[in-house]
């Protein structure tokens, strides 16, 4: 037995292995964080290429490039890949890198399971993407896969789509359990819950949401699987079921899922704005309570995605009121960020630019969100491009911008080198302009009556679709610049100091840059700088 | 750092946005007011919430920009140290709640009006199919029941850019739904296959058509005219190509129209009873084939294998006629082949089955009478 | 919170082949399973799917076995601290919470169908005009006659609660008691008591499963109650079936704990594996009580 102990203790002090096996076998939270982030970026480019196909087809009215059936596969895969492959893994990657460093832990609570959670994803997405090459084509029923289009009328590859969702669910649940166990159990002595950085708080709540709703999604796809292959009648009125039942279950998952993608973004922005305003975050406590309220509300508003499915009026009213309430805690957050900036001493490095753009543009998405919450008006907005504009405003300049802000903010800590500030700013402005040119006109065509998920449209929508396509390509190609900046930063550059940013606070800034392979083998004793 | 460069970018962006807006018709960038009391209420609600958002936006963004201009390190300011203010936090929690209540009020009233369907004088059943709408003027007397399909009129040549796109591209149908103005019309909306959504922006009606269930919506249209919308729920390959067109006419004109339709329906009923000649069946069959079958099975019957099998020399089209008729009437589950039993009249069905067996390179030589098809249909029910 | 002492010895394992093999195993299992299902529905002969499934299942099983063995070895090598134990405890509870949510989806489906859909199909409420599509249908629960009997034949009768289901309830509730006795055994350092009561619990679990298999057989052969009998058969089999699958898993967990107990594992203050299985078993028990009430008693 003693030999075993020695072996383990010996290995414990090792740095990383060399070569590809380092990444396959690793149990290190930083390695796994890196894997998640690169995987996410790869998926972001893949999902983006599919968006290119969509926007290219929509550049002009008429069918130019793809068949309508293939177009539907593109919209479906674009949504699935961006939600499950790009945004979620990026957030998990950030959590992996940052949570242990921020709370002064040696690693994640369950390091081997951590790697398991990651390695499921490449398999799951290979299977998902391979459906595009199967007979009958890939999933073509939208990322919300409403039945019976996705069951009775779905292609045979739907079975593999369902199993891919199962795998992603397993990965997410294990990842979330790991994060919760880490946060609740691995904090440095003295770091009480209300002293945790906000990013850690938002991830604690996000992980809880994940564990609560991913199994519900698994239940929904399992019911589909049974209806397709075993003759059950969950979603078929002929047997006493109801297609709307699927939508209820899906959105009970789907709405919290939206917050799973945005709460960590709130956390990121709450770290960055105080740093560059050189001023403590305003209203820390209310930020925590607002995050928790949003998470709670996310469970009781799901049917606002389904106002047109013929619900009784009591249901419509309840879901409308509950949904409107979300504006209150969200407003509190925006006002807090504003108050943090107020009378600070701001500088506008790239992470700050992305964070400020996040606040501005996410708020636009919040406004349109308030509009679609009103049932009578939603009868006009629902399933139109107005909704497409709404959720792209919360997801792209929302979640995605926060991920980019985080990347710029912590890259010096991760790599030990400063990124190229000039190129970073260029990347920001190209993205900022691209995103607005792409998505703002979609509000107009939506209001004017253009339905979503169509490969061809009536002539009056032509101008804005053309503008939108130009913006989408601008935004998409700008991300190659991001790739270049990141690679350049990894390969070298001005050496970063430990603190990196003048106004930065938090345990991750107390260790050297780049962060050593094992950051807190013994817990930090001085927590005076732990709280931003 | 040169900040003015950034402002220039912003100004350029703003100019781009506003100039493209100025060039467009207001109706291209905003909701339509529509032609019913309800749709105008919805429009007012939309504009109210829009202006509320604009005002909040101006205040929030205004404060933010002032802060970004004044509170920057390059101006040599020292950061303040405050990080909470209970009064402020209570204020910005309470005020939004009050604003929300103020908005919820009109939204609730409008919604209650929408759900208060009252007694309608006219019931029209709207059935979604992949990818067309069927309209049934519900009548207790089956001989008087008017029922027709509404297909998109835009030809493939326009869609595939071989011909110039005309006005109402993708928004024109062969048989629009006809309703009387100033009359309460109730729509009974359902679907035969997947979920569709029946949307007429000018009536502020959007209701999902769910297979196996019937949802209701109602309207009182005040002005005669053509009102166009589209299917709003993804329903498969040709989701973009199933427009909704409603023609609202004055009540007396509507009565005339309905009488004509009912006469036609009766005629249809009678033609089903008579014995058809092969030539009659073949002539009608070709017409029906082009309209309903050629999209998938192609004009010459070669199909697009494997999804859409060829009819020329096909196992079914040259096998026993009952089997062939069964598939045409009831569809084939698990494939794209729909059940046409509800979509076409008995005469049309008999004609197209006969046509498929004796044209497209087939020459089986037999035929089927509308009467026989009708028997098969009623047996299925 | 953690004392500094325990904190400093938190064990971080070194590189491991387990995760990649576990991922591969899972992937092959579902990939093979997908092929089998698709072939089955398309009516084709089974292709390579069976072999992929078997290979995946084997890899998963071997990997899981090695994984648990590794963890047990590390525990015996005293690499784990009290803090590590808390990690396991948190993780197990959150895992059980995720299982609760999985069942919640199916229970919610049952309630929604029962309290809304049946009425709508029969002509009540907001979607009442639906009855024009199903003129022959009369609303009832359990739904023995479906709206379209040609597609979903319906069942001859519903599964009553007072026969086998009641016996199974008694079995499962007793097993929760016996497993508590086993727990006492370990707390009192009486290994014999632990082993005996654990063995009884495992037997009760097997007995429960045997009765359930018989119940299904009876449903299919004598009652016309099948998976495609309509929504009643659907909810009945899916809820009880997933519960049965969890009982199976729980029984296997307890069986492994029994074997470990016989090999001399576990002490009163170090028996996380055993306790986790016990929690899981109680969870399965509680789900059953929900089923007994909502599926059997209120469903017939």
> How large, in whole angstroms, is the Cα Rg of chain B?
29 Å
Order of helices and strands of chain C: HHHHHHHH
Share in helix of chain B: 40-55%
Characterize the quaternary organization of these chains. Answer: heterotrimer
Number of strands of chain B: 10
Q: Number of DSSP helices of chain B?
A: 10
Radius of gyration of chain C: 23 Å
Residue fraction in strands of chain B:
15-25%
Distance between the termini of chain C: 50 Å
Specify the biggest β-sheet of chain C: none
Q: Any low-confidence stretches of chain C, pLDDT <50, length ≥5?
A: 1-7
Q: What would you note in describing this structure?
A:
The complex is a heterotrimer of chains A (532), B (381) and C (300). Chain A contains 16 helices and no strands. With 532 residues, chain A is an all-alpha fold. Residues 1-12 of chain A have low confidence and may be disordered. Chain B has helices at residues 4-22, 26-29, 37-70, 86-115, 156-159, 251-273, 278-297, 321-330, 346-358, 370-380; strands at 122-129, 132-137, 146-150, 177-180, 184-191, 196-200, 205-209, 215-220, 225-230, 243-249. Chain B is α+β, with helices and mostly antiparallel strands and 381 residues long. Chain B has 10 helices and 10 strands. Helix content of chain B is 44%, strand content 16%. The model of chain C is unreliable at 1-7 (pLDDT under 50). In chain C, 71% of the residues lie in helices and 0% in strands. In chain C, helix 2 packs antiparallel against helix 3, helix 4 (82-121) runs antiparallel to helix 7 and helix 7 (231-262) packs antiparallel against helix 8 (272-297). Chain C contains 8 helices and no strands. At the A-B interface, helix 4, helix 8, helix 9, helix 10 and helix 11 of A face helix 1, helix 2, helix 3, helix 4 and strand 7 of B.
């Amino acid at each position: 037995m003693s030999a075993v102990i020695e072996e383990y203790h010996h290995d414990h002090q090792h740095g990383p292995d060399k070569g590809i096996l380092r990444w396959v076998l690793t149990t290190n939270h930083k390695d796994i964080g890196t894997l998640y982030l690169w995987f996410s970026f790869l998926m972001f480019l893949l999902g983006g290429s599919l968006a290119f196909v969509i926007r290219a087809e929509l550049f002009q009215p008429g069918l130019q490039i793809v068949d309508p059936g293939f177009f539907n596969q593109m919209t479906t895969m674009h949504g699935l890949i961006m939600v499950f492959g790009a945004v979620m893994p990026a957030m998990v990657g950030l959590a992996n890198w940052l949570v242990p460093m921020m709370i002064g832990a040696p690693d994640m609570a369950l390091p081997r399971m951590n790697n398991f959670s990651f390695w499921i994803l490449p398999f799951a997405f290979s299977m998902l993407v391979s459906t595009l090459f199967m007979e009958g084509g890939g999933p073509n029923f939208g990322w919300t896969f409403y039945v019976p289009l996705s069951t009775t009328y779905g292609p045979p590859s739907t079975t593999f789509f369902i199993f891919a969702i199962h795998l992603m669910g397993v990965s997410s649940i294990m990842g979330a359990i790991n994060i919760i166990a880490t946060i609740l159990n691995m904090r440095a002595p003295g770091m009480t819950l209300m002293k945790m950085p906000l990013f850690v708080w938002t991830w604690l709540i996000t992980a809880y949401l994940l564990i609560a709703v991913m199994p519900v999604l698994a239940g929904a796809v399992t019911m589909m699987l049974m209806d397709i292959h075993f003759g059950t009648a969950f979603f078929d009125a002929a047997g006493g079921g109801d297609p709307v039942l699927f939508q209820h279950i899906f959105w009970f998952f789907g709405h919290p899922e939206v917050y799973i993608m945005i709460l960590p973004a709130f956390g990121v922005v709450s770290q960055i704005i105080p740093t560059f305003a050189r001023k403590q975050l305003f209203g820390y406590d209310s930020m925590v309570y607002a995050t928790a309220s949003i998470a709670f509300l996310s469970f009781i508003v799901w049917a606002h995605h389904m106002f047109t499915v013929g619900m009784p009026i009591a249901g419509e009213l309840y879901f409308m009121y509950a949904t409107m309430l979300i504006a209150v805690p969200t407003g509190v957050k925006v006002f807090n960020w504003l108050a943090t900036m107020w009378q600070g001493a701001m500088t506008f490095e790239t992470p700050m630019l992305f964070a400020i753009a996040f606040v501005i543009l996410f708020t636009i998405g919040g406004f349109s969100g308030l509009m679609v919450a009103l049932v009578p008006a939603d009868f006009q907005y629902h399933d139109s491009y107005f909704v497409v504009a709404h959720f792209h405003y919360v997801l792209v300049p929302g979640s995605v911008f926060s991920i980019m802000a985080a990347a710029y903010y912590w890259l010096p800590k991760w790599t030990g080198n400063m990124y190229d500030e000039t190129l970073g700013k260029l990347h920001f402005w190209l993205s900022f302009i691209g995103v607005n040119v792409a998505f703002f006109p979609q509000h107009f065509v939506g209001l004017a009556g253009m339905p979503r998920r169509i490969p061809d449209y009536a002539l009056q929508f032509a101008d804005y679709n053309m503008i939108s396509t130009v913006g989408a390509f601008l935004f998409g190609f700008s991300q190659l610049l991001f790739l270049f900046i990141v690679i350049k930063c990894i390969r070298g550059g001005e050496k970063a100091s430990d603190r990196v940013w003048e106004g930065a606070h938090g345990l991750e800034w107390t260790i050297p840059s780049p962060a050593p392979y094992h950051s807190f083998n013994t817990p930090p004793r001085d927590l005076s700088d732990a709280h931003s | 750092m040169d900040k003015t460069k950034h402002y220039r970018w912003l100004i350029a962006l703003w100019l781009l946005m506003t100039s493209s807006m100025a060039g467009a018709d207001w109706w291209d960038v905003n909701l339509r007011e529509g032609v019913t009391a309800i749709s105008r209420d919805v429009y007012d609600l939309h504009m109210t919430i829009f202006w509320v958002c604009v005002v909040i936006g101006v205040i929030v963004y205004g404060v933010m920009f002032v802060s970004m201009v004044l509170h920057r390190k390059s101006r040599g300011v020292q950061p303040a140290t405050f990080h909470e203010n209970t009064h402020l936090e209570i204020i910005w929690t309470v005020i939004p709640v009050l604003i929300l209540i103020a908005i919820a009020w009109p939204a609730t009233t409008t919604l209650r009006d929408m759900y208060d369907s009252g007694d309608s004088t006219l019931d029209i059943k709207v059935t979604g199919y992949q990818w067309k709408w069927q309209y049934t003027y519900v009548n207790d007397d089956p001989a008087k029941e008017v029922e027709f399909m509404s297909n998109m009129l835009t030809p493939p040549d326009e869609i595939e850019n071989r011909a110039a796109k005309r006005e109402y591209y993708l928004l024109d149908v062969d048989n629009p739904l006809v309703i009387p103005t100033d009359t309460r019309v109730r729509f009974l909306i359902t679907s035969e296959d997947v979920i569709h959504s029946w949307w007429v922006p000018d009536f502020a009606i959007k209701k999902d058509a769910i297979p196996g269930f019937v949802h209701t919506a109602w309207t009182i249209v005040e002005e005669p005219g053509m009102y166009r919308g589209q299917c709003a729920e993804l329903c498969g390959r040709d989701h973009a190509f199933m427009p909704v067109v409603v023609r609202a006419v004055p009540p007396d004109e509507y009565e005339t129209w309905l009488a004509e339709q009912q006469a036609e329906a009766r005629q249809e009923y009678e033609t089903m009873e008579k014995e058809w000649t092969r030539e009659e069946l073949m002539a009608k069959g070709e017409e029906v084939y082009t309209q309903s079958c050629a999209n998938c099975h192609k004009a010459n019957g070669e199909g697009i294998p494997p999804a859409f099998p060829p009819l020329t020399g096909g196992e079914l089209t040259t096998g026993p006629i009952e089997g062939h008729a069964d598939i045409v009437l009831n569809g084939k589950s698990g494939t794209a082949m729909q059940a046409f039993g509800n979509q076409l009249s008995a005469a049309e069905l008999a004609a197209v089955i006969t046509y498929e067996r004796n044209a497209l390179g087939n020459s089986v030589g037999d035929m089927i009478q509308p009467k026989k098809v009708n028997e098969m249909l009623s047996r299925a029910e | 919170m953690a004392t500094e002492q325990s904190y400093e010895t938190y064990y971080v394992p070194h590189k491991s082949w387990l995760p990649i093999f576990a991922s591969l195993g899972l992937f092959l299992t579902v990939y093979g399973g997908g092929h089998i299902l698709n072939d089955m529905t398309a009516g084709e002969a089974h292709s390579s799917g069976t072999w992929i499934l078997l290979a995946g299942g084997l890899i998963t099983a071997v990997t899981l076995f090695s994984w648990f063995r590794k963890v047990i070895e590390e525990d015996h090598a005293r690499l784990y601290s009290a803090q590590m134990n808390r990690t396991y405890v948190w993780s197990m509870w959150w895992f059980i919470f995720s299982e609760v949510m999985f069942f919640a989806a199916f229970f919610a489906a049952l309630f929604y169908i029962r309290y809304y859909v049946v009425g709508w199909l029969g002509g009540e409420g907001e979607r009442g005009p639906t009855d024009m599509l199903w003129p022959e249908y009369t609303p009832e629960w359990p739904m023995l006659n479906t709206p379209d009997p040609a597609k979903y034949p319906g069942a001859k009768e519903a599964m009553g609660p007072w026969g086998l289901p009641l016996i199974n309830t008694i079995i499962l509730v007793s097993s929760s008691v016996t497993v508590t006795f086993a727990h006492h055994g370990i707390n009192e350092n009486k290994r014999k008591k632990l082993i005996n009561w654990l063995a009884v619990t495992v037997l009760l679990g097997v007995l429960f499963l045997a009765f359930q298999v018989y119940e299904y057989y009876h449903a299919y052969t004598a009652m016309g109650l099948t998976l495609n009998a309509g929504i009643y058969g659907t909810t009945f089999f899916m809820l009880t079936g997933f519960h049965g699958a969890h009982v199976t898993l729980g029984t296997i967990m307890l069986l492994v704990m029994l074997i470990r107990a016989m090999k001399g594992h576990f002490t009163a203050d170090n028996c996380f594996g055993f306790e986790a299985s016990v929690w899981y078993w109680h969870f399965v028990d509680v789900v059953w009580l929900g089923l007994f009430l909502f599926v059997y008693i209120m469903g017939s």
